[in-house]
């Protein structure tokens, strides 16, 4: 049976008083890999922000990884984010510390105490993204693709029920985009659910999957050959 990790009914997405998307009906099930496409300004980022609690859901209903988005309290947001892995276009790594310390920072902030468990988790996530030998490096010593792989490793730390990736290949060249995409495909094969906003049609063609499109203030599913 399919198990929803995200479900929105009659939802509207707002930036302050401006309605960006309306009548949003979406379900994402455990294990899915879903693309979110649409022109610049069509609302992909606003949609993602609503999902991770950066914008409030004030109209319609939404559940994500066991949280109700309507009326989500400020103090619940860190707990929601712990069950989500969020990956951004610009990586958002801390440049003043090594890869390992970037990961350690998140684990400590989310309550991890046991040193053996911490070390094992860091090794595990770095291995998943093929960065096991680079833990001692600083982000600025890594290529863009490597930085993004570390950001994906960071998103995996708390075994998220859903990974939200907002243009994860937006700053990468085509070859490196494919490498990062291979990592996302691999973790999806291993059971992680992923929603990925992208502009990159080459990736959609190379790795076809369920695709949602933002257009004209609506989100709808498209069949691949018409995107
Ligand atoms: N902080 C903000 N305050 C007010 N309006 C905003 C804000 N951020 C975005 N918008 C507006 O919301 C609309 C949707 O923007 P959004 O960034 O969600 O689109 P997008 O599809 O993610 O675009 P891109 O691909 O360029 O990131 C745009 O009209 C934009 O001007």
From TrEMBL:
Q: Which SMART domains match?
A: AAA (SM00382)
The portions of this protein that span the membrane are none
Q: Is Flavoprotein given among the entry's keywords?
A: no
Q: Does the keyword Cell division apply?
A: yes
What keyword terms does UniProt attach to this protein? ATP-binding, Cell cycle, Cell division, Nucleotide-binding
**Pfam families annotated for this entry?**
ABC_tran (PF00005)
Task: Give GO MF terms, alphabetically.
Answer: ATP binding; ATP hydrolysis activity; transmembrane transporter activity
Q: Which InterPro entries match?
A: AAA+_ATPase (IPR003593), ABC_transporter-like_ATP-bd (IPR003439), ABC_transporter-like_CS (IPR017871), ABC_transpr_LolD-like (IPR015854), P-loop_NTPase (IPR027417)
Q: What sequence ranges are listed for the domain ABC transporter?
A: 6-227
Q: Cellular component GO terms, alphabetically?
A: plasma membrane
* UniProt-listed GO biological process terms: cell division
Q: Which family does it belong to?
A: Belongs to the ABC transporter superfamily.
Stated role = Part of the ABC transporter FtsEX involved in cellular division. Important for assembly or stability of the septal ring.
State the protein's name: Cell division ATP-binding protein FtsE
